[in-house]
Write a structure and sequence with these properties.
The chain is an alpha/beta fold. The chain contains five helices and eight strands; from the N terminus they run βββαβαβαββαβα. The longest helix is centred in the last third of the chain and has 16 residues, at 195-210.
Length: 213
Amino acid sequence: MDALTDVAVPVDGGLLAATLSVPRPARGMVVFAHGSGSSRHSPRNQAVARYLHQGGYGTVLLDLLTEPEDQAPEELRFDIGLLADRLVATLDWLPTQPDAAGLPVGLFGASTGAAAALVAAARRTGVVRAVVSRGGRPDLAANALDSVRAPTLLIVGGDDHRVIELNERAAAILGSLAHTEIVPGASHLFTEPGTLEQVATHARDWFDRHMRV
């Protein structure tokens, strides 16, 4: 497994704790945006990141709130504008890292983090090559969806009926850029045996298709 490096990403208001991993050679970088109540230590995102490492992708797993903010009111965890600002700052910071500079970049977002990823993709159309959403809430990025230019994969659990509906509506706005992948028998968190592995496979296939150098 590639070495993991603890780094700090500068943002307005402080520093974001992050874990950076860049294989050599690397074919691209994927920045992860976790859902509310989670962090860079999310076991689900870490599992997907490990699978991407095996495919030659570097990853950035980061906390979207600074340490003081993490003790702040719950509303911050659902402030999609703030979370998107943090992702944009990370996208702007990434080229300053020697091993990552010049590599194509994708975003992987879960739950509310997927909404932030879509807003960030809309704001950095020349940077973000592809977006993958796992159990995402793209409805929370509704005002930005028609500005997204990156091919977007919406992965939803087959038993997550309400979120399927929300993702289908978002796919209609994204149009030909979007593809919805339903994982049969999976709930919102993809805790059922084998379902997270399917998420990782779909994600890597999507990045392989859309992040070629």
